[in-house]
Design a protein that fits this description.
- The chain has 250 residues and is mostly beta strands.
- It contains two helices and 21 strands.
């Protein structure tokens, strides 16, 4: 686990005015900006971090004495609103070591790929064109028993490379329908994609809270022998809060 805290103190300044033709102008101001605090911790594949940013306030007072001896003063105060607290919660779905993912559930191809190898940093595979897949179980074991789903997460993020296109399908429930994304391009340059799970499931948070499996499938190939790689599979609650920059698909 790791924790870090950064605080930036504000600044204060005062400046004296100038005297000309019997008049004197004096202005003073103070401004303070609180910094940002970030904390992060990791345990059992799950990471949570919090960032808080406050607003900025300032005050200025101006006094002027003219030739006639009349003094006037004006005070102005400005305050910006405080940003809401952003919290990232994420789950690293697969470390690609052993035969199960970080939920302790099965992964694999059901014999539908030419080959695949779990490398410790991802999975390398050579697909056939068409309805073939690589899957990650989210609530069933290798015997097909339907268990408890993982906690609710709004997004799925992954990084993929290869040669062609693919689709991703998410299945909620144990006997539910499959919800399939549009095809997305896969090239030799690794690309990070994000899927808004709730949007893909028709806006249903209830379905998104009861996920069964996720599959990468329906490959089209520009090379029948190219090796594809899949890595960095995360479930998370907020892309911005987690600092994720990804290409969205749905």
């Amino acid at each position: 686990s790791a924790n870090s805290e950064v605080t930036q103190a504000g600044a204060q300044s005062t400046s004296s005015g100038a005297t000309s033709n019997g008049s004197t102008t004096t202005s003073s101001g103070d401004a303070q900006t609180s910094g940002a605090t970030n904390t992060a911790s990791s345990s059992s594949g799950q990471t949570s971090s919090t960032a808080t940013q406050s607003g900025t306030s300032g005050q200025a007072t101006t006094s002027t004495t003219g030739n006639a001896g009349v003094t006037s003063s004006k005070t102005t105060t400005s305050t910006t609103s405080t940003s809401p607290t952003a919290t990232c919660t994420s789950f690293y779905l697969d470390s690609f070591t052993g035969t199960t993912n970080n939920l302790g559930l099965s992964t694999g191809d059901d014999g539908t790929l030419k080959s695949y190898t779990r490398t410790g940093s991802g999975v390398s595979f050579v697909p056939y064109a068409g309805d073939h897949w690589y899957y990650e179980a989210l609530k069933y074991d290798s015997n097909g028993n339907c268990g408890s789903p993982p906690p609710f997460y709004a997004y799925l993020v992954f990084t993929i490379s290869g040669a062609g296109t693919a689709k991703l399908d998410i299945r909620p429930g144990c006997e539910g329908d499959y919800y399939v994304t549009s095809a997305f391009p896969v090239t030799s340059s690794a690309t990070t994609y994000s899927v808004d799970i709730v949007a893909l499931l028709g806006g249903s948070t209830a379905l998104a809270s009861n996920l069964y499996s996720v599959d990468w499938e329906n490959f089209t190939l520009t090379s029948s022998s190219a090796t594809w790689t899949l890595s960095g599979i995360y479930l998370l609650n907020d892309l911005a809060a987690c600092g994720i920059s990804a290409t969205p698909i749905i």
